[in-house]
Amino acid sequence: MSEQGTSSFSKVVCYSVFALAILNLVVFVVVALSIGGFAGSGKTVDSRYYVGSHGVYTDVSRTVFRYSQIHYYGIWFTNCLALLVGGAYELERRHAKRVTKDSANIKQPSDD
Q1: Nearest-5° angle of CA 104, CA 110, CA 112?
Q2: What is the model's pTM?
Q3: What is the DSSP string of 2-28?
Q4: Which end of the chain is more exposed for a tag (fewer CB within 10 A), N or C?
Q5: Which of 93 and 28 is assigned the larger pLDDT?
């Protein structure tokens, strides 16, 4: 256990998931800016695919539209996962802190 009472494995998992979520979001924004929007705000009209951004639509290939659509849902997944892992880590940290505090208050038997 570390100083805060949580395992270093928990800390590594938590920080890794947060890093993954942030990296995924950055890639999503960079791609959306470079293609003119994202499929979550886009539309399909007469077998043509458009990504949208602030009411402006950009014609893209079906492959790009599908990638943007999958990445859009992936953002929701990674962000929710980061929130869940962060919440679990915080609960573990608080529990470990409480257990450490409680065990410090218990009087140890003396060898008299």
Answers
A1: 170
A2: 0.74
A3: -TTS--HHHHHHHHHHHHHHHHHHHHH
A4: C
A5: 28
pLDDT in tens, 66-86: 999 999 999 999 999 999 998
* pLDDT tens per residue across span 2-13: 445 567 888 898
* pLDDT value of position 97: 79
- Cα gap 90→108, rounded to integer Å: 29
Query: Helices 62-105 & 8-35, crossing angle to 10 degrees?
Result: 160
Adjacent-strand bridge partners of 57: 52
Alpha carbon separation from 11 to 1, 26, 67, 83, 90 (Å, rounded): 10, 22, 32, 14, 10
Give me the DSSP letters along 39-106: EEEEEEETTEEEEEETTEEEEE-HHHHHHHHHHHHHHHHHHHHHHHHHHHHHHHHHHHHHHHHHHHHS
Strand order in the sheet with 48-53: 38-45, 48-53, 56-60
